[in-house]
């Protein structure tokens, strides 16, 4: 993911959308990091759901929980958040139920944040490190035999 983010930053992403199913508090730290690293706004949308939003047992059973889940038990507590390029929380996180969060975005804050830290600009060291992104279709995995001859996909 860091390499993917670097490629997105190089293309000038201004709003980074991060859908998730991670309702842990620590997720917000990751979103703040991305906002600061990329000098971009981060919109992290998380689901809020209760047991009754899923098929009933035994059709659907939650593995790894010994809790006696009733229909109103919270399965995923949400935590959607909007973070500015300077790391300030503009809206959320919301753990209170289904909700729509919103914020006014000052796009000028992107340029101001990059004066402090521009990961693909004045802080980059292209004479030492570089990233090459192939933007054409290719196989995600290629196997090489002991003969050194690349093997194609097996059918």
UniProtKB/TrEMBL annotation:
Domain of life of the native organism: Eukaryota
Biological-process GO terms, alphabetical: detoxification of nitrogen compound
Stretch list, region Disordered: 136-155
InterPro entries in UniProt: C-N_Hydrolase (IPR003010), C-N_Hydrolase_sf (IPR036526), Nitrilases_CHs (IPR044149)
SUPFAM superfamilies in UniProt: Carbon-nitrogen hydrolase (SSF56317)
Compositionally biased region (Polar residues): 139-148
Secretion signal, residue range per the UniProt entry: none
GO molecular function: nitrilase activity; nitrile hydratase activity
CN hydrolase domain segment(s): 1-107
PANTHER family named among the record's database cross-references: CN HYDROLASE DOMAIN-CONTAINING PROTEIN (PTHR46044:SF1), NITRILASE (PTHR46044)
Similarity remark: Belongs to the carbon-nitrogen hydrolase superfamily. Nitrilase family.
Protein name, per record: CN hydrolase domain-containing protein
């Amino acid at each position: 993911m860091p390499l993917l983010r670097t490629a997105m930053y190089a293309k000038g992403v201004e709003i980074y959308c991060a859908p998730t199913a991670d309702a842990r508090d620590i997720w917000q730290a990751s979103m703040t990091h991305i906002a600061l690293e990329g000098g971009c706004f981060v919109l992290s949308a998380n689901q809020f759901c209760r047991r009754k939003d899923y098929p009933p047992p035994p059709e659907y059973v939650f593995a790894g929980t010994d809790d006696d889940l009733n229909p109103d038990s919270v399965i995923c507590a949400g935590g959607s958040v909007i973070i500015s390029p300077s790391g300030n929380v503009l809206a959320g996180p919301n753990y209170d139920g289904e909700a729509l969060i919103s914020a006014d975005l000052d796009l000028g804050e992107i340029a101001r944040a990059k004066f402090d830290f521009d990961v693909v600009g004045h802080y980059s060291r292209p004479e030492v490190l570089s990233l090459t992104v192939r933007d054409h279709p290719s196989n995600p995995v290629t196997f090489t035999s002991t003969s050194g001859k690349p093997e194609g996909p097996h059918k």
